[in-house]
Amino acid sequence: xxxxxxxxYPSMGRELYEHNSAARAVFDMAESIRPGTVEQCFLGxxxxxxxxxxxQPCVYxxxxxxxxxxxxAMIVPDMLAGFSLGEVAALAFSGAVTYEDGFKxxxxxxxxxxxxxEMVDAAMVAVLKLSDDMVIDLCGEFSKVYPVNxxxxxxxxVAGESSELAAFVNRVKDAGGRSIKLKTSGGFHSPFMxxxxxxxxxxxxxxxxxxxxxxxxxxxxxxxxxxxxxxLLAKQICSPVRWESSxxxxxxxxxxxxxxxxxxxxxxxxxxxxxxxxxxxxxEDIKSLEETLKALRR
Length: 298
Fold this sequence. Notes:
This protein has 14 helices and eight strands. With 298 residues, the chain is of the alpha/beta class. The chain folds into two domains: 14-118 and 190-297, 3-Layer(aba) Sandwich (Malonyl-Coenzyme A Acyl Carrier Protein, domain 2); 122-181, Alpha-Beta Plaits, CATH 3.30.70.250. The protein has a four-stranded antiparallel β-sheet. It has a two-stranded parallel sheet with strand order 1-6. A two-stranded parallel sheet has the order 7-8. Strand 7 (257-261), helix 13 and strand 8 form a beta-alpha-beta unit. The longest helix has 21 residues, at 52-72.
């Protein structure tokens, strides 16, 4: 499971770069294409890393660096999924696109989404303790508030215009729920991103993208890719993330071990709320890499 935007933090990936050759190669690749990426990952402040144009290239690198550290240790996944931005990293890891081309696409994606976010004053909040239907109904009371990430039972992320979000948050409280503002710079996976989706689709048409060599789940459908890779990647930017559906489908297909690669443990927490009796691990630094390898070998 490849981490998404919002999981970033200062110095992420630094230990992997310093102590793992496979991880270092990912960062070196990115640095050759976009000078300054390594410095942003290791020395960038919260403010710098929260800018979409910086967040996405940096998280892409940390995701793939962690995945490569596992692959170097002969850990090969049966299925892949990535949360939002992480889906592009997962696509590259699947062999559908080279790491270099995937990084270039991520840089374009980030640029388009940054530009779209600057056209409207929007933000994202996680809504807790309410059912999906309740959140959908509350969003329906507003003209520019949308349910965008279906994460797990009792947690949906909503994107909305700032002028309406304060009132929406009050409605959530009235309904018995709780809201948490996210570290993102726009209203992603909503109609606010329509222009970014169109622009990214045009970039994807120029790209050489194959079918994934490992089963890869789409955020848009909650099911594996089935040949319409470019269409799903473009549509994903302005469509809700069906994360819970993806995980439940994996469980139906007998997945019993989930490993999050990239900064933080956000996806681990979501799986924990969806699944029982599964192993949930993560890799974001040397300690977590060693602990994950120990658990898998046990």
